[in-house]
Amino acid sequence: MIAESKNQSSENFRQDSDCAFDGKICSWQYAGMESIQVSPSLGKKEAYEALLPQIFALLEGESDLIANLANIAAALKQGMGFFWVGFYLVKTPLFAKSKSPTPSQGELVLGPFQGPVACTRIPHGKGVCGQAWAQEKVLIVPDVDQFPGHIACSSASKSEIVLPFYLQPDFEGETRKVMGVLDADSDRLAAFDAIDELYLTRILARLCK
Ligand code: SME
After folding, report:
1. In-domain check, residue 20
2. Please, are residues 103 and 206 in contact by the beta-carbon 8 Å criterion?
3. What is the whole-number distance in angstroms between the Cα of residue 179 and the centre of ligand 1?
4. Using CA positions, which residue lies closest to atom 5 of ligand 1?
5. pLDDT tens digits for 122-147?
């Protein structure tokens, strides 16, 4: 893309020299989207409708997983106002212990997130995140104190939604594998419902396509 003059009146335009890398990164700025824009007056569904195209634009043309997870977390925090939102990624040991009767499935390790500091490792089947991974299903928890084994990273967190996302198989017949989970927490009870599940699932589908 040709650089616009810095004297151009529109603040949506910047010189390429202002960008650390290449035109692709600048295209985000050329589009005038330097920050996520979701009006606080919108209802939840409308907020997601406004936010999703902005997230998809962020993902466009970028294949690096960590970069995309980081921007999704930032966009969801800013656009939806979650108390905490981020990713845990499945990490398996490089070398299985030779005498172990059951090879370790690995554990969830903290990835890109926005919000207060959080627990770094969650075993398979533990907490809401470990359960969503083990069951390979979306878990909506209206009251975390009622969820057996809930892992409290912050006492301010009252409800949460956790969605697994998948590494798609390369070959027909192979089964998909959980790559990680998206966890969103609220400081309000029962903050999450089918609307969150629908739109967050759409974001993860775009991430994994
Ligand atoms: N509550 C989660 C742990 C992660 S934090 O909430 C960020 C759980 O029970 O798995």
Report:
1. no
2. no
3. 17
4. 153
5. 999 999 999 999 999 999 999 999 99
